[in-house]
Write a structure and sequence with these properties.
The protein is α+β, with helices and mostly antiparallel strands. It has one helix and six strands, in the order E-E-E-E-H-E-E. Strands 1, 2, 3, 4, 5 and 6 form a six-stranded antiparallel beta sheet that branches.
Length: 103
Amino acid sequence: MIEVRKGIIEKVEFGLCEEYPFLLGLELFFAIDDGIKINTVGTHLVNVNDKKSRAYQTGVMIDDLLKILTIAGVHRISELVGIPVEITFDDHCLKGYRISVRE
């Protein structure tokens, strides 16, 4: 069952993923109004051990980051905190998110 919930970006980190230290990139942490917290592990990340596709993955990550910053209307990842998002779940699993356009 597809469900869309409203929330905000609560925290943003760039660096090595704590759970998977071979992954480098952007992690977004969301807070939903009923106290649920979720993050984007597995998206916007580069496997630093994969030398064959590392350059390509880095380019994709930078394109993703530029798109996120542009849609949110900010210049730095630290400015993403507090930005409203719509988070899509499929059977209670994170399927995706969309930055809500500010009015």
